[in-house]
Amino acid sequence: MAPAPARLRLRAQGTLPFAVQLPGVAALPDGTALAIGGLDAADSSLDSVIAVHGERAAVAGHLPQAVHDVGVAALGDRAYAFGGGTASGPVASITAVGADGSAGPAGTLAQGLSDTSAATLAGTAYVVGGYTSTEPQRSVLAYRPGAPPRVVATLPHPLRYAAVAAVGGRLLVAGGTDGVHAQSRVLSVDPASGAVRTIARLPAALSHAAGASLGGTFFVLGGRAGEAEQPSAAIWAIDPSSGRLTPGGRLPHATSDLGAATVGGSVLVLGGRDAAGAAQDEIWTLAP
To answer: Dmax of the chain from CA atoms?
Structure first.
């Protein structure tokens, strides 16, 4: 039997310039993490690009349009933001963002999408699920700069607000909601073949959680648990090969709608929404 993965331990790493919930987060090769868009404490969409590097966090630039619920993944020295929600509905824009906060157009989705999750695997960004303002999606899209996104896999059910990370040559997808009910499945997606299989189930249905890869393990952080959608402080560790699920630690308090990215040998966790519904400005580092 494979040994259980190490639990993650917390270290406070300062605060964001302001409270943010539902940001898209990606880490660049220089160790900078970008928190892109999201909602502020008044539930208004943000156009901010916040650069977090070590103990420093500052607004580095702005998007062409304020968005929330945006999937973000890194390719090379840029992060790419896919769609996102606005006051008038989801947008179809793909925006490239540099470490200096510069942002510019990099393509379009086939339709406006919000509530997506994204991850990078072998030089390709993958966008999982989403919402068109009328229906949730089952698609997994592949994107490389210079080419339009294409469908590479179909999920067993529509999905929004899932936790996603690339682990062990696969995309791991945990929880989310089909638009009516939160889900407990942990899916393994092989983009090369399009195969999708269930490898585990979370102890309870979970949406609005964050996903991250560290040391070959898929970590699912926080979220809204159960049909009552109660914010959770749990961190779950999932072995991508066996599907074995074990406790992976605890967040400092129950948090949903948070952002996470792997930076070096740790997971950077920032922002989110607490059990009282208040947006958060905390930055934490989680490491074995």
So the answer is: 52
